């Protein structure tokens, strides 16, 4: 079985530098083998890449791409906190917040952008509990925000 770092490379993906907090919080908190991350938005090079509500300004496919970018940012934070992506033992839970226009009832489809990527990278250890929640607005106007809890290797 390939390591997460090898799967990431095989997918042609690289982890970005871990995004810096933009308010009064820390990027991650570890307690024993549980690693809880602060929410991640679709930031690249310091700029939010996807702004606006799904069902109005953004399509489901664009929101799924935003969810993938959020996930890569979360993986960068997690890897930084535990000394590398290969020290993440499994994905425990993913919460996906979707900026949703009135009447948009498919945040679960947006969340698949994150869930499918995690399974591609971690295999069975990437399968996780999940919640997908439609909300009116997200920080910085973001289309998606993702909150992940990992189990870290000792």
Strand order of the largest sheet: 1-2-7-5-6
Q: Counting H and I runs of at least 4 residues, what is the number of helices?
A: 3
Please write the string of helix (H) and strand (E) elements.
Answer: HEEEEHEHEE
Which range does the strand content fall in? 25-35%
Largest sheet: 5 strands, mixed
CATH-defined topology: 60s Ribosomal Protein L30, Chain: A
Summarize model confidence as the mean pLDDT: 97
Radius of gyration: 15 Å
Shape summary: globular
How many strand elements? 7
Q: Kindly state the percentage of residues in helix.
A: 25-40%
The CATH superfamily is RutC-like
N- to C-terminal separation?
Answer: 20 Å
The secondary structure category is alpha+beta
How many domains make up the 3D coordinates? 1
What does this structure look like?
The structure is a single chain. By secondary structure, the chain is α+β, with helices and mostly antiparallel strands. It has one domain: RutC-like (60s Ribosomal Protein L30, Chain: A, 2-Layer Sandwich), CATH 3.30.1330. The protein is 30% helix and 26% strand. The chain has 3 helices and 7 strands, in the order H-E-E-E-E-H-E-H-E-E. The protein has helices spanning 4-10, 60-82, 107-122, and strands at residues 28-31, 34-37, 43-44, 47-48, 88-99, 129-135, 144-152. It has a 5-stranded mixed beta sheet with strand order 1-2-7-5-6, covered by helices on one side. Helix 2 (60-82) crosses helix 3 (107-122). The longest helix has 23 residues, at 60-82. The radius of gyration is 15 Å and the shape is globular. The two termini are 20 Å apart.
């Amino acid at each position: 079985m390939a390591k997460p770092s090898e799967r990431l490379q095989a997918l042609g993906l690289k982890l970005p530098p871990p995004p810096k907090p933009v308010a009064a919080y820390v990027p991650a908190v570890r307690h024993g083998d549980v690693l809880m991350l602060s929410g991640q938005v679709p930031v690249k090079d310091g700029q939010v890449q996807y702004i606006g509500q799904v069902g109005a300004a953004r399509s489901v496919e664009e929101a799924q791409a935003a969810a993938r970018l959020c996930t890569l940012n979360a993986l960068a934070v997690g890897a930084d906190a535990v000394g590398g992506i290969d020290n993440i033992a499994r994905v425990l839970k993913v919460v996906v917040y979707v900026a949703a226009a009135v009447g948009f009832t498919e945040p679960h489809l947006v969340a698949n952008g994150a869930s499918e990527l995690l399974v591609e990278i971690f295999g069975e250890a990437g399968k996780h509990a999940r919640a997908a929640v439609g909300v009116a607005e997200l920080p910085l106007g973001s289309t998606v925000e993702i909150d992940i809890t990992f189990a870290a290797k000792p």
